[in-house]
Specification:
A six-stranded mixed beta sheet has the order 4-5-11-10-9-8. Helices cover 35% and strands 29% of the residues. It is built from ten helices and twelve strands. The protein is globular and about 60 Å long. β1 and β2 form a beta hairpin. It has two domains: 182 residues, no CATH class; 30 residues.
Length: 286
Amino acid sequence: MEQHLRRTVQRQCSGTAGRTENCQIGVFAAYASPKGRALVDRELYLPKSCTSDPGRCRAAKVPDERGFATKGELAKAMVARALASPLPIAWVTADSAYGQERRFRRMLEEAGVGYVLAVPKSQHVHALGRIDFAIARAPEEVWERHSCGNGANGPRVYDWAAAQLPAIDDFDGDQPTRQRWVLARRSLARPEEIAYYLAYAPGGTTGAELVRVAGTRWAISVSHRRAATRSSGSEPRSALSRSAAIAAGSPPQVSPSTRIAVRRRQMWREDRQQSTRKSRASVSKP
């Protein structure tokens, strides 16, 4: 590691190590498609203790305009850059550090991009309450066994449960073309280990498709391992915590009727916002 970069190392919680230790935290973006996967963007997370110390930042060669940004804000900026690029993107997936952020999910919904995002078990879900309580009430017959892709030891097979959520009128309009889902992944060997997801997908998407998208999040780990092996010939322990994951795939074909429905929803939302602003303005008049 370059000497100046060592000045950004400090004790902080590392998702890779599973504990607090001296490290750097990185946020990474990977692109995944049927043709392969690759890392496409990255940001170094700088704690407040670093960004609030101008001398330390200058010694670490951090640009003067770089201020403090949460890991969620860094991920949001990288996804925005990816969406503005020529890459065809239909889905975004990320771990629970990002999936739990409502603004991150809202940005993807407004961009018309599907997502399958991990969330913590305490995540509150519209019309359901806590996601873990809702999944605990699900009957056993809703669980289906699927592989979410191949891992180092073969197919990654789990039991999965999926359910559609009701539309949110303020966001979705009268004729929504996309649907929100809850998704849960249960370990076969340790059934008490359950991971939870929120999803947003085009109408007609199946639970099996959401499982496939959820599995693309491993593109981050696979890309890191390959990069480390190529650079050193072995698989070293990295000082840079691989705490984030976002991935995208090739977009589906969108019919003209779907485009019209999306535009109608946007116009409905704009009219609603404009009428709300007018109402607020009339109330504020003396």
